[in-house]
Amino acid sequence: MGNPGAFLNIPRKEGGYRPADERVKDYSEVEMRLNAVERREQASRCMDCGVPFCHWSCPLGNRQPEWQDRLYKDDVAGAYALLSMTDDFPEFTGRVCPALCEKGCVLNKRHEAVTVRENELAIVERAFAEGLVRPKPPVNRTGKRVAVIGSGPAGMACANQLNRRGHKVTVFEKNAAPGGLLRFGIPDFKLDKGVIDRRVALMEEEGVVFRCGVNVGRDITASQLLEEYDAVCIAIGSETPRDLKVDGRGLKGVHFALELLQQQNRCNAGENFTDDVRVSAKGKNVLVIGGGDTGSDCVGTSHRQGALSVTQIEIMPKPPVGDNPSTPWPYWPVILKTSSSHEEGCDRRWLLDTRRFIADDSGCVSGVEVEEVEWEKNPSDGKMNLVHTGRMSIIKAEIVLLAMGFTGPSGKELLDGLGVERDKRGNVKVDPQTRATSVAKVFAAGDVASGASLVVRCIASGRDAAKGIDAYISKATEL
């Protein structure tokens, strides 16, 4: 703790966003960054608490007080060494993590948490800029081969850790480039895809092989993998979107959120789509159904495509602003979250249930009928029950985006081919410690086992799977 009084004298300062009227014209990252002096001041605010709740809150177990002290002392090499011990990809989490660590920060009791996420990003970006991040291939190879199916954060983390241990790792990806939903789901204005390319290139130099455009279960059978590799890790995510089966669902203009998000990312990467398949909000009134991060990403993307207006609705009540007695510190606060996309313009409404989609004369969606609802607690069991009020209204919309979460993994051929046991939601059952499935030498990591979650949790899961695989094939207990 290099500056014991900093948290008393230096206020929290964030990098902030580029001006809204400027950023909606492009897909460049919206966040700005403090200069090196200001960033060191922010790092100095860490109190090195006796009980570091930031560490407790982080799924990766990041050692925030230690590397923030190093950053304050301008020891970027030391800070990066500490950070990369627990986080394989701080350049990802530094951009898209919701910062559970900051919610647990003791200073968050007065809403002045240390800027942990931004400090993390500053460390890794300076480390890259100053040539401190270099390929370090393993000195010795074990001769063991592992197949990782899926190149999202869980698969990449698993592959990275196993490669460092000396195993030969091949990552199979069905898409044309690695990254999973980091590349094809998260908008470029939150995560520039050059950041993914930089890390993939580093992993390739260290010996990880990426085989893209290969759909395991179709192009390669599950039995082939089991014969050719000493272990297999399934990390295909949870890509089946929750549907809304109401009248008019089949109308033109009603899309799942990822149809918009994935296509726009592909367009940004240089792909072209014909008008008949292009999903675009240009010149249209947009309705986003679902109030989470994916819905927020749809809001920001719609603005950049040139939407006339954007409305976002949610069936749940509006969360409290600022504080929520039901989720006190140091737990994750269930409060109203306003993203950079919301700040660009969005009519946000709560307690609305979608009843039907309305067609125009050409068979395209032109509006959505919604009903106001209430939530009442059942006195007998305490459960909250949805109550329809009968108060109906129509929201004008020429494009509707369904952003209501995900229900489970796709990849039926793969999962059935491997014969792994699944739970009632369709997720792959795993041992919570080793990440082993019901099939010998087959493991699973990330959303395919847990259901849709956070990037930081997927990285942690991938690291756990690597430990389990390493123990299985080499009888080691630690990486």
List keywords for this structure.
globular, about 35% helix, FAD/NAD(P)-binding domain, about 15% strand, alpha/beta, about 475 residues, five-stranded parallel beta sheet, Fumarate Reductase Iron-sulfur Protein, Chain B, domain 2
Give structural notes.
With 479 residues, the protein is of the alpha/beta class. It has three domains: 6-129, Alpha-helical ferredoxin (Fumarate Reductase Iron-sulfur Protein, Chain B, domain 2, Orthogonal Bundle); 145-239 and 407-474, FAD/NAD(P)-binding domain; 245-402, FAD/NAD(P)-binding domain. It has 19 helices and 15 strands. The protein has a five-stranded parallel β-sheet, sandwiched between helices. α16 links the parallel β8 and β9 (347-350). It is globular.
Q: How are the SSEs ordered, and which strands pair?
A:
Elements: H1 6-9, H2 20-23, H3 36-44, H4 53-57, H5 64-72, H6 76-86, H7 90-96, H8 100-104, H9 116-129, E1 145-149, H10 153-164, E2 168-173, H11 181-184, H12 193-205, E3 209-212, H13 222-228, E4 231-234, E5 240-241, E6 254-256, H14 257-268, E7 285-289, H15 293-305, E8 309-314, H16 340-343, E9 347-350, E10 352-359, E11 365-377, E12 384-396, E13 399-402, E14 406-408, H17 412-418, E15 442-444, H18 447-450, H19 455-474
Could you say what the CATH topology of the largest domain is called?
FAD/NAD(P)-binding domain
Number of helices: 19
CATH-defined superfamily of the largest domain: FAD/NAD(P)-binding domain
Q: Provide the structure class.
A: alpha/beta
Largest sheet: 5 strands, parallel
Strand order of the largest sheet: 3-2-1-4-15
Query: Which percent range describes the beta-strand content?
Result: 15-25%
Task: Please give the number of β-strands.
Answer: 15
In the CATH hierarchy, what is the architecture of the largest domain at level 2? 3-Layer(bba) Sandwich
Amount of helix: 25-40%
CATH class identity of the largest domain: Alpha Beta
Overall shape: globular
- Gyration radius from CA atoms, angstroms: 23 Å
Unreliable stretches: none
